[in-house]
Structure formats: structure tokens, C-alpha cells
Amino acid sequence: MSRIGLMGGTFDPPHLGHLLIAEQAREQLELDEVWFLPAAIPPHKVGFSSADHRIEMTRRAIQNQSDFKLNLIEFERSEPSYTVETMKRLIEQYPNDEFYFLIGADSLVSLESWYDYETLIRLVTFGAVARPGTRYLIPEKADVRAIDMPQLEISSTDIRERAKRGKSIKYLVPTPVEEYVKEHKLYDV
Question: Per the database record, which ranges form the Cytidyltransferase-like domain (predicted)?
Fold first, then answer.
């Protein structure tokens, strides 16, 4: 049985904060691997880069990390990417593995509003990462493990805005991601 951390998101672009969360979760939760699961159709976001760009940037971001894997399960269906549906399919495909869904502690507050929350909390253990200015508010019946990590305030939104303004994104994203963004002029206005 393997212990697998799951890192979901649009990854538009993937940045060093994502990698730091994945590494701290891998170490502290004693995970065998961390799988990056780019969302095909994020249910609560609009205006994101194409799937091809987001997949390739994620692949490049983790290419030198042997414990990090890219998993495209969210692209196997045409409906919005609800976590509970992804978890059901992963458990069906990998019945002998144990999954930990990595989440920001700030998202725990709204966890009860997630699609089919009751089923989701029965299926998965959450690895919660504190972000600046948040507290752990653990919903009832949810299995949540705390992940301590250095505070690093980096967001994909800020990176996109910097790139749109022609500002540097160096040291915010892995070098191969920075090169890809420049090569494809992803966030140019």
C-alpha cells in the first residue's frame, strides 16, 4: 500500500509555493508520492489557460522531482472537476492506496460547502497547510492532518498579473515554467 498526496488546482501557472507544499506534505505525512492533478474544468473559476498549457507547465514544474507525478484523471471526463468524483475514481483505480488531499487551511472553512461534502470526508484524509493569517477550523467528522511549513505568499493570480505587466516572475516559478510562459506569451495582454 502506498501513501499518496493529491495536489489539485488549475496550476495556471504552477509555482514554487505549490512545490513547497507538496514537499512538506510528502515529508511530514510520510507520503510515498505526491500526485499533481490539474483541474480540467474548475467549477469555481473562469478565464484560465488552455489545458495543454497548464498540463505542460505542471509537467515541467515537477520534472526533476522523482516523488512528484502528474496525473490527468480530471481530463478523463467532460464534467466540472469536483473533488469527490475524482476521489471515487482514484479509490476505484487504486484500491490498495491511501490518499491525502492537500488543502490550504483557509479552505477548511468552506469545506462543508463543497459538492457532496459528506461523501468526500468519508473517502479521504486532508493534509492542511496554514497560509498567512489563517487558523485551522476543522469541520466536524473530517480527518485533517496539519502540515507545518514556512510561510510563503505566492499566488498564481499575482504571477499572471506580473507577467501581463511585463514584470519578472523569476524565483516565483520553476525556471522551466518561466521559460514556457515567456516562449508562449501566456499572460501577455
Answer: 6-162
Give the number of other CB atoms < 10 A from CB of residue 55: 18
* Per-position pLDDT tens, the chain of length 189: 999 999 998 999 999 999 999 999 999 999 999 999 998 876 666 668 999 999 999 999 999 999 999 999 998 888 777 899 999 999 999 999 999 999 988 788 888 899 999 999 999 999 998 765 556 778 888 999 989 888 788 999 999 999 999 999 999 999 999 999 999 999 985
> Which residues on neighbouring strands pair with residue 9, listed in sequence order?
38
Distance CA 10, CA 51 (A): 9
Q: What is the pairing mode between strands 125-129 and 144-147? A: parallel
Whether the bond into 14 is cis, omega within 30 of 0: no
H helix runs in the chain, sequence order? 16-28, 51-62, 83-93, 105-108, 117-123, 156-164, 175-184
Question: Residue 164, SS3?
Answer: helix
Proportion of the chain in helix, strand, coil states, percent, rounded to 5: 40, 20, 45
One-letter identity of residue 113 = S
Chain centre to alpha carbon of residue 63: 16
Count the Cβ atoms, other than its own, within 10 Å of residue 12: 24
